[in-house]
Amino acid sequence: MGGRFITFEGIDGAGKSTHIEALAQHLRQRGERVVCTREPGGTPLAERLRELVLHAPMDPLTEALLVFAARRDHLQHQIEPALARGDTVLCDRFTDATFAYQGGGRGFDLAVLAQLERWVQGERQPDLSLWFDIDPDIAAQRRAAARPADRFEQQDSAFFARVRAGYALRQQAAPRRVVRIDASGERDEVWRRILDVMDARAW
Ligand code: TYD
Question: Ligand 1 mean position to 99 CA, how many Å?
């Protein structure tokens, strides 16, 4: 039996990263083996591609190809072997982010992204994707209090409104896999909502 594959999504500043660690701890306490990883990244090659995607100017097609190239390496060398061992994989962003950022944010062709998705992933999809949804203006305030901005974080709120709409489309297309979490509240409130989603699946 394979392990579970859970991804964490949302616009920059939605606050997903703190909850990945919390969920990892929670599952480990219950005796599960958990691998925490991220995209773009998660392997030495994919982390090098991440540096380029986050900091080097490039056109939307190049950006899409690089995130999928990173994803391919990550799936082959990290995600698939972990799932085959029966580990639970928690991944900070995955393909929904490509549809949201390159598709929604940059306006890149969704049909081409869907083709790349099939090419790179075959049938592989997360078992659950937690979409941390938040108003772009609140997210911008949270980001301003954090660290220096990368190429995406420098975008204006219209960009993040399009990214958010991109996530909403993915949620509508796969409502059982993608669960919207209202990320506007206090951290503990959001954490409760995550536990409710896990309970609802008897996980
Ligand atoms: P993020 O996950 O927010 O990491 P950190 O918390 O360290 O900033 O940053 C990754 C960025 O990459 C984010 O702005 C979204 C972008 N991204 C894409 O544009 N497409 C993708 O497919 C993925 C996975 C990420």
Answer: 12
Are 117 and 173 in contact by the 8 Å Cβ rule? The answer is no
Whether ligand 1 lies within 6 angstroms of the CB of 25 is answered as: no
CA of 184 to the centre of ligand 1 (A): 20
As a whole number, the mean pLDDT across the chain is 96
Number of H helices and E strands in the chain, helices first, is: 9, 5
Mean pLDDT, residues 34-55 taken together: 98
Q: Is 16 exposed, middle or buried (0-12, 13-18, 19+ CB in 10 A)?
A: buried
Say whether 7 sits in a helix, a strand or coil.
strand
CA of 95, closest atom in ligand 1:
22
Architecture field, domain 5-200: 3-Layer(aba) Sandwich (3.40)
Kindly write down the DSSP assignment for every residue of 130-160, as one continuous string: EEEE--HHHHHHHHHTSS---TTTTS-HHHH
The full set of domain ranges for the chain reads 5-200
Q: Indicate whether residue 96 lines ligand 1 (CB < 6 A).
A: no
